[in-house]
Amino acid sequence: xxxxxxxxxxxxxxxxxxxxxxxxxxxxxxxxxxxxxxxxxxxxxxxxxxxxxxxxxxxxxxxxxxxxxxxxxxxxxx
Length: 78
Prior knowledge:
- The chain has 78 residues and is mainly α.
- It has one domain.
- It is elongated, with a radius of gyration of 23 Å.
- The protein starts with 9 loop residues before the first helix and ends in a 13-residue tail after the last helix.
């Protein structure tokens, strides 16, 4: 594990301290979790962008057109 020196505005540090306390975790755990969530969000977005580049609208339309017509289950009509 490595250490990182981080400068934060006092207001952000105060919010982090309050939220970490409410969550029952240390400030380090809170920040580590927040950074992990951000990394996951960016990675997911990048993955979806790459997948979208490979998409083919005609193939997608063909797949949708192959779905049989059925009456929706009650509650799924909308």
